[in-house]
Amino acid sequence: MSGGGCSIVWFRRDLRVEDNPALAAGVRAGAVVTVFIWAPEEEGHYYPGRVSRWWLKQSLAHLDSSLKTLGTSLVTKRSTDTVSTLLEVVKSTDATQLFFNHLYDPLSLVRDHRAKEVLTAQGVAVRSFNADLLYEPWDVIDAQGSTFSTFAAFWEKCLSMPYDPEAPLLPPKRIISGNVSKCPSDTLIFEDESEKGSNALLARAWSPGWSNADRALTTFVNGPLIEYSKNRRKADSATTSLLSPHLHFGELSVRKVFHLGTKFGEESVNLFLKSIGLREYSRYISFNHPYSHERPLLGHLKFFPWFVDEVYFKAWRQGRTGYPLVDAGMRELWATGWLHDRIRVVVSSFFVKVLQLPWRWGMKYFWDTLLDADLESDALGWQYISGTLPDGRELDRIDHPQVEGYKFDPNGEYVRRWLPELARLPTEWIHHPWNAPESVLQAAGIELGSNYPLPIVGIDAAKARLQRALSEMWQQEAISRAAIENRMEEGLGDSSDSAPCLPSRHTNGGKPNVNTNVNQEPGRDVANQEVTQNIQRRNNVLRFNVMRDVGDAEDSAAESSSSSRREGWRCSSSLVPPSSGYSEHYVNDENRIGGSSSYLQSHPQSHHIINWRRLPQTG
Q1: Is residue 244 marked as binding?
Q2: Polar residues: which segments have biased composition (predicted)?
Q3: Which of 7, 26, 202, 511 lies at a C-alpha separation of 20 to 30 Å from 593?
Q4: E strand or H helix at 126, and its extent?
Q5: Known binder of ligand: residue 374?
Q6: The last residue of a domain, from among 81, 108, 131
Q7: C-alpha to C-alpha distance for 416 and 346, rounded to whole angstroms
Q8: CA–CA dist 438, 312 (Å, integer)
């Protein structure tokens, strides 16, 4: 075992020994101490959910086993302040260097910058690397040096870059271990007794760990990928790669996936690589728009009058909406922590368009229940479905769950698997039992409103309500714009402090007021007040241009980029949940099916985000 002067390799969401630039740099430098710091309280409302924590536990054990075969072991630390713990590890091991790989969510960017500042001040050399993306966000720009506002333009640029992504690195042959005698590991607790029974079922379907991810990739490339273009729309999850949890935790290198995929030139491969591109784009959006998980990128949608209804929300979570494909998806999610990407679109679109519940509630529930919960990807998906991206789905477009059912589950096999009460219903009626003759329902043992619910809301009624909401939205946007223009003419500036329709966020001891505004920022610490005020002052600028200077792009409050989408739309003050989550009083359900696994009550703090865009991102 080596003495002092070692390097620290800080693992986060890069839990692999293969194609790990930080680990490779540490090995080249000499003796290495590998460390993982568990500080979930720092994540605020996005405290990891049960199934995500189960995966992390298995993945860390797998990584530790791999490191031991190479000559070292993983030091695990429990913390509430990652940077302080890093400094303690450095001092206890006499380390002189720190290596880690980039992350792109706002909290990580700020934390990483602080780590560099603090450790550099202590004389520690700090270097960070790209291990999560094909290209760094700051490298993908147009000819004018501006960022891209649509996925199509972004992905076209990635595919036409003058240089290919770097080839994946091989695992090190051996690792010289640094001295950890004064740096013992902490025992990390990822589950309580009440969760162990449910978690045991996950091991039957999933095998976390980087070498298992490698095998899963090989299996997919040699099997489902061949028919991916034909089968990807089927609700059966066996038609997809099932790689997203491995990618989220960094068990699998996206560069390895890309380089393996580009060896083929078929339509299926191109479609699959496009899905990898969407993951890239989610990081790109998060980096350039750090509040994308909390507010819409198109500013007029901050005036949309979301329907705050606990009954609707609970019915959706429990798979009791009366629409079979939606209900089957939500029950699969609760039982397995997984959903086919097409079913994710169906259930989230129903949530936003039909129930008109605030999209951030749905995103937070996905975060709590998905194995592959990923803040950047989930924010992109929910923003897309909610029409809050320049190239997202129009908010006034409602896809009927019955039509979607016969498109993605034509024989009803998926519905029958997850809704056993409908198992005997003929395929003709499987996606719209409310239209089935009474004799058919009786023969199938179905009593609508009893053992299976009637539709929670009619689609025609939902369409009418949506049009009214859109009309209110545009009216309110026009009022706000006129008020700002009047203030500008009077030389009073565009401060949002006096902008209309900005009611108080909380009343009644911190519980959300139904008049909470969608674009009010979460609480900040004192050090961030000046930045927050600057953001608020710019928040009502009504002309959206995502290609603008990077320092201002995220803060614009926009008009739609498509004039055709404005016709028939107009708005009201927003009725939305607290920032970054849904209401605390939705946490404890008496019925455990779809009951929320949110940790808002135990961990109510929000992100403290400074203007990290001005911080150096490389080095």
Answers
A1: yes
A2: 594-604
A3: 511
A4: strand 125-129
A5: yes
A6: 131
A7: 17
A8: 27
131 a known binding residue? no
Side-chain half-sphere CA neighbours of 114 within 13 A: 17
DSSP H stretches of helix in 337-437: 341-349, 359-369, 375-385, 401-408, 413-418
Q: How many CA atoms lie within 13 A of 42 on its CB side?
A: 20
**Enclosing domain of residue 377:** 310-460
State phi, psi for 329 to the nearest 5 degrees: -60, -45
Does residue 589 sit in the same domain as residue 451?
no
335 labeled part of a ligand binding site: no
Q: Can you read off the two tokens belonging to residue 249? A: 């935790």
Q: How many domains does the chain have?
A: 4
Cβ distance 591 to 319 under 8 Å? no
Residues 327 and 385 in one domain: yes
| 243 labeled part of a ligand binding site | yes
* 175 part of a folded domain: no
Compare 240 and 530 and report the one with higher pLDDT: 240
Q: Is 599 annotated as contributing to ligand binding?
A: no
Would the pTM of this model clear 0.85, i.e. be above it? no
Residue 229 falls inside a structural domain: yes
The answer to the question of whether 272 is labelled as a binding residue is yes
Query: At residue 315, what are phi and psi to the nearest 5 degrees?
Result: -60, -40
Q: What is the pLDDT of residues 23-78, one digit of tens each?
A: 999 999 999 999 999 999 999 889 999 999 999 999 999 999 999 999 999 999 99
Does some domain include residue 480?
Answer: yes
**Which DSSP state fits 452?**
B
pLDDT of residue 460: 96
pLDDT tens profile 513-547? 323 333 333 333 333 333 333 333 333 322 223 23
State both tokens at 468: 């009214």
Report residue 493's pLDDT band, with 50, 70 and 90 as the boundaries: low
Share of the chain above pLDDT 90, in %: 62
